[in-house]
Records
---
Amino acid sequence: MPASVHLVIPCFQESGRIGPFLAELCEVTRELGDVTIRIVEDGSDDPETDRMRAIIAPLREKHPHLLEPLFMPDNLGKGGAVYTGWNMEKDADWLGFVDADGSCSATEVTHLVGRAREQLTPHTALFASRLSQFGKQVHRQWKRRFIGHVFGSLVSTLLHIRIHDSQCGLKLVPRSAYERIAPALRIHGFAFDVELLAALHDAGVPFLEIPIAWFETPGGHVHLIRDSWRMARDVWRIKMNQQRRHA
Ligand SMILES: Nc1nc2c(ncn2[C@@H]2O[C@H](COP(=O)(O)OP(=O)(O)OP(=O)(O)O)[C@@H](O)[C@H]2O)c(=O)[nH]1
Ligand SMILES: [Mg+2]
């Protein structure tokens, strides 16, 4: 039996972008088997919720592994949505998330699931990375690429964890490792994956950065100045929490 994988797709106002990606993801993961997917919609308004239901319902008829979506009453942030989805899943060997906009293709998701299944028992977290290595093409706006480099350096310098791209929208974590660190996780915004990384690192869980192809889909929600500032502040909070734990 292959290891089972549960993927959360965190969504906020994504009905305009998710359709083709979700359809393809359902197809390719059905062929893989033992993958479940849950959309966690993070407090969008009623018309948006209706549009998402209209996209998801026909796909669920064909693909039972696309689970009942979760519509949250309030906006918790990307991390809050991912963790809410993960906490609902009690069985899967692997917990993961993938961005809704299709910047990372369904094929890349299947490759990462394949890499996870090479592990006899899940022990190493897999962080997809926009590294432009091994022939993987990465198309991003230069501004986002630049801020990403600065942010990666900040994470490496402050937290002493060498990582190139902590923010890529595709990650898989062994469920047993997540359950150990979950009580310490506090950050629910866009920097949640930095805290996840730091907590895994502190718990002695290894991680690997896996280069993937990335074709940025226009219409992103991350506001370069406002959100970069919030994320930098969150990295500082993560460092302070880490120091408190080690004191
Ligand atoms: N749950 C939740 N998810 C969000 C929120 N904002 C964005 N997301 C999701 O986070 C993922 C990434 O957001 P994007 O809007 O694609 O971010 P971006 O500006 O394109 O940035 P990159 O994709 O990293 O280049 C998508 O799946 C979004 O739906 C939010 O407030 N709550
Ligand atoms: Mg995006």
---
Amino acid sequence: MGLKLMCVIAHPDDECFGFGGALALAADRGIETYVICLTDGQAGSYRAGAASGEELGKMRREEFAASCKTLGITRHEVLDYQDGKLVTVDFSKAAGRLVERIRQFQPDVVITFGGDGGLNTHPDHMLVSMLTTAAFHWSGQSKRYPELGAVYSPQRLFYLTTNFFIPGRQEPKPAPWTVTLDIRSVQARKAEAFRQHASQVPLVEQTKELFEKFGVEEFYTLIAAAGTQPARQETDLFAGLEG
Ligand SMILES: [Zn+2]
């Protein structure tokens, strides 16, 4: 059995501007990848002339699929939560939907946003972090959701973090990183995936310079792993793991 990576995000385009490097690097190594996006981005600030949230959501689902294809992602899925409203979801139910998917897919490594909400401190990103963290742990516990399949415990959970901020925006308090990923070999593909999000072109343009300057690396923090240990600096999310 080969290694598997699961990535949980809030909006179409999180998969590329946030996690694109890690996902494309994994794909290049033959690691199976599964991206779960909780909303279809109906409440996006950039509307691309869409007449309704529903229309924008439909557009963004297609852009998400095209971006995942560019990154070489094996499996992708958009759930039906409302963009901008993840703080209102039934926590236990939403975490259960992730538990079910972790038990089915059986990833070795799970990646998601940190509790800071990422570079733009989006509350949806914070909620994705919390739901994924709960699901990561509950998936391996037999008392939790016994009706949702056999328990399965992924080996590692990482949060996305950053070494820069977006000028003029509320600064997050990001976690110190434990993994520095050199993503130069996939940097062009990450940028190309971002361009698949045609409805979000103003955002792509706005952040272009920042990503050109800081985009050679992605940073992650190890949040949970088997055993007890001090934090170590690594250059690979899968260091020491065998498929
Ligand atoms: Zn987002």
